[in-house]
Structures are given as structure tokens and as C-alpha cells.
Amino acid sequence: MSRTQDELGLLLSRTYLSLKRETSRMLQQFELTPEQFSLIAELDKQDNITQKELADLTEREQTTVTKIVDKLVKKGLVTRGHDPHDRRAIRLQITAEGRDLVKDIKPKIEEIENHAYLGFHQKDIELLHTLIRKLHQNLQ
Amino acid sequence: MSRTQDELGLLLSRTYLSLKRETSRMLQQFELTPEQFSLIAELDKQDNITQKELADLTEREQTTVTKIVDKLVKKGLVTRGHDPHDRRAIRLQITAEGRDLVKDIKPKIEEIENHAYLGFHQKDIELLHTLIRKLHQNLQ
DNA sequence: CTCAAATAGTTGCACATGCAAGTATATTAC
DNA sequence: GTAATATACTTGCATGTGCAACTATTTGAG
């Protein structure tokens, strides 16, 4: 079954690395990495979640999230609070400074995405999202 | 322009990390990382290319490729040869052992991809590839 | 209730990543 | 032909990644 010449892994990694590099360069002025931005952007959407939940949302291991959150706390963008009902768990709060930063960065992320979507119809974008989401589900 | 709820970066990184993790677990029995496999698979397709060309093909910086090739050479899967016409350049050759390894691994990679494509029609797969390739081009 | 298993989190390791700065060679400008 | 620029590659650094092994707490089986 030679469906097309290129493997999924190669296609995905090339595209992911390109997007990540471009995002990384844009984020230098904010002294953030794409991964750090990804986590505070998620906390901006859903505050007061546990590290475990944040790991699941962003498809990373808890251990990875621990280390990135360490850096976000050091930068004053996130605080760690205890869960009153589960003393093992840590709940994360985004600070006002964190929210401001996300607000500043979001339009610049959109610029990059708009450029990536050059020549795409709205239908193409929706289809692409649907297919990628389905891929992701199958890989769970 | 709020096209859909999820950002491209989040979708892409989640899916990429999932696929990479599953591939990584499969490759443990071969003592290879997904990135190492990716490079020798590319060399299996096109032998005797320079590190620069390999970097471009896989969308990585030359510096990253240098380091992964170091490991492949140590494992005896790749050799470095000099370019007779350009003494700066290094040309890479995959060894017989390297080719055998790629041959063994390829069907297992296809298994993972087939699982990822569960519920996809052939048309969906082709469309997905076309859209991702277009994304990648726009990001160049 | 008690003890085993599961869960949330952390730390140490090896590897991937890319930028900055370096060397060596090739190309281009004049 | 020589000097400036570009190119191929390498090394050092900081960060992200996930597995293994660890602690602390909660859940569940009996």
C-alpha cells in the first residue's frame, strides 16, 4: 500500500519544525519559547487546572510540563497553588502579567498562521483541522 | 478572524508529539530515535548527498544534522566521505547495515501510520498530504 | 481498617533543537 | 590576483522531550 510518496512522519515533522522555528524567532522579543507560550496560552483559556490536566491538553508528559512551568513561575507569568481536595495536585494560575503577554502575542501568532494559510479557502482550513484532529485521536 | 477554536500550532504540536512518541517506543528495540531513523530513511532514498542537502530535505538546521549524523556514524549505519569538487562539503553514504535496518523498520512505521489513518479514505489521506505540503511551502 | 495499587509531581539522564560564534574552503567584486 | 563575501561544517550553550526511578498522597480490595 504505497499511498503517496512521502511518509506522514516526514511531512508532519518538516511542517512542525518550520512553524516552530518561525514562531520561536517572533517570540524572541518577548523572551519566550513557543512551548512556554503554548502553556500560558492554554492557561489563559482555562485557569486553575492541574499540571496533569495541562499536560493532557498539550499532549506532553507531566515531566516536561513540570520543567516548563518552572521557567514560567521564575518569570512571574504563572503561580503554583495547592489543591484543597488533593494534596498531591498542584493548580496553576496565570498572573495578570501572563495574561497581558498572551494578549500582546496572540495577534502576532495569527499573522504567522495567516501567512501559513496563504491560498487556503476557509473550507480547506476547516478540513485540515478536522483531519489533523482525527489523526491525533487515532494516536491516543 | 476566528477561523476555528484551536490554533494551528497546538493542533500540529499535539499530533506531532503523539506520533513521535509512538514511533520512539517502537524504535527502542532497534536502539534508534525517530530522528535518527528519519535521516537514514532519507539516505536510503537518496544516497551520497551532503549534510546541507539532508538538512534541507528534513527541514532541520545543519547543526542539528551534524549531531545526529555523528551518532549514526558511531553506530556504523552511515559513513562520511569527502566531496572531490568541494572540500568544504561532506557526502553521506548509508552502509549495508543501515539499509538492512531501514528495510526492517519500514513495515513497522507503516503499521503505525495505518493506525493513525484509521477511518480515513484514500482521498482524505491525499488531501491531508496536499494541505500539509502547502502549509510547509508557505512557511519556507 | 489496612495494605496494595494507582496517581500527581519531581529529578536525573540522554537525545534533539537551533542560535551564536567559530574554522575552512569557495565564490565574487574589483 | 587579492580582498570581501558566502557557504559547509562544527562546537558550546540553553531549552524541550520523555523514560526510569523516586516521594507523597489518594483510592480500592479484602
Automatic annotation (TrEMBL), chains A, B:
A Pfam family the protein falls into = MarR
Domain of life the protein comes from: Bacteria
Please state every residue range assigned to the domain named HTH marR-type. Answer: 5-137
Give the SUPFAM superfamilies listed for this entry.
Winged helix' DNA-binding domain
Q: Which InterPro entries match?
A: HTH_MarR-typ (IPR000835), Tscrpt_reg_MarR-type_CS (IPR023187), WH-like_DNA-bd_sf (IPR036388), WH_DNA-bd_sf (IPR036390)
Query: What one GO molecular function would you report for this record?
Result: DNA binding
Give the record's keywords alphabetically.
DNA-binding, Transcription, Transcription regulation
Where along the sequence do coiled-coil regions lie? none
Q: What is this protein called?
A: HTH marR-type domain-containing protein
